């Protein structure tokens, strides 16, 4: 992501929640017109026509994220994302963004565990320019030692500001490194500081040469366009770029996480005002849209626990028992790797983290012992439908949904089936997944032990947190 913008860490801050559920509830007419093309060099193009306003969103998604990194170069996917704005022979550094801004458009990029994406949103008449610029840097990026030396410092400062100086982000990072034993999700998207300090422009060049190829990319265009014209435009700009010898995403080596055999606990001491608790359970993500059912039950469970005023965690722990000042649930059903179901909370004044953990456990035990009511199920699904009304108004959200599905190896054509699977979730299935996965053998507990804020201020002065 360009300097000053947030890395898209979708797996902790609920990647789905009601948003994902609402995205699934797209009616057939809304998805009746996406057109799919495949260029000879392997580039997949998906176009969705939406003629309500003369605007277009174009996104290029590369099926390479931090999951594809190896030890010693963690963070290189995100570093390369920064370097993609440093120019080509035809478009010097800074010129890409200047041209988009001059056209009245906006543009940015984001890196996740599973993919890296770049986007522009602008008037439809400027689509040819945006596509020409994006295709140029797919194939002709110039990486120099001088530009890399400047940008790696920007990334390191971003890490300091957004992780090391943010106690909850730091807790999450330490928790992920504890939760996963071998899977690359244990590494932060922004990378470990030592790897960033020792990264070279050659590392970024190798990443670019390997992964930035048309046969590893999905081009998504949504807006006031004609599909056949967009295809011709894509063919003209991307068609001559050669493919790389890469396996399709679903044919790459599987990266499975060894089974956890007992509870894990970690305490992180950091300057902070309040303690914080995160509990994470290993759970599955969607791998087979046709046969899977557990991820959908987990999605509905997440929305029963969190996401609206009458959700269980807020109602029970915050409003009734006053044991938490805030409590939430978070789960991502869409991921190339395994997933985690998170419960997190801030204890109320006078309450301890231990009491908070027991209270969260109590809410899960209620699900296991008593299940959920049909009334709760109906309420969640009704809220999902209502929230989707707003999602359909955004061409950017439509493009994001298509890109995310395609980039992890699923398909936007699975939407209808996913909707049916979601509608079919029963109270008994929710109870079953809670009983199966919410146990200590798959649990990691992370606690933020707040230290005096004076330590943080003095450390900044002395430079202890800046080395």
Description of the structure:
With 467 residues, the chain is α+β, with helices and mostly antiparallel strands. The chain is built from 17 helices and eleven strands. It has helices at 17-24, 76-83, 95-102, 127-140, 145-164, 167-179, 193-197, 201-211, 227-238, 294-305, 312-320, 353-370, 374-391, 395-407, 415-423, 427-437, 453-462; strands spanning 35-38, 44-49, 55-62, 106-111, 116-123, 217-223, 264-271, 276-283, 324-331, 339-347, 443-451. A hairpin with a 4-residue loop joins strand 4 and strand 5. Helix 1 crosses helix 13. The radius of gyration is 23 Å and the shape is globular. The relative contact order is 0.17. The model is unreliable at 2-31 and 458-467 (pLDDT under 50).
Outline the fold blueprint.
Elements: H1 17-24, E1 35-38, E2 44-49, E3 55-62, H2 76-83, H3 95-102, E4 106-111, E5 116-123, H4 127-140, H5 145-164, H6 167-179, H7 193-197, H8 201-211, E6 217-223, H9 227-238, E7 264-271, E8 276-283, H10 294-305, H11 312-320, E9 324-331, E10 339-347, H12 353-370, H13 374-391, H14 395-407, H15 415-423, H16 427-437, E11 443-451, H17 453-462
Parallel strand pairs: 2-6, 7-11
Antiparallel strand pairs: 1-2, 3-5, 3-6, 4-5, 8-10, 8-11, 9-10
Helix pairs in contact: 1-13, 2-5, 2-8, 4-9, 10-16, 12-16
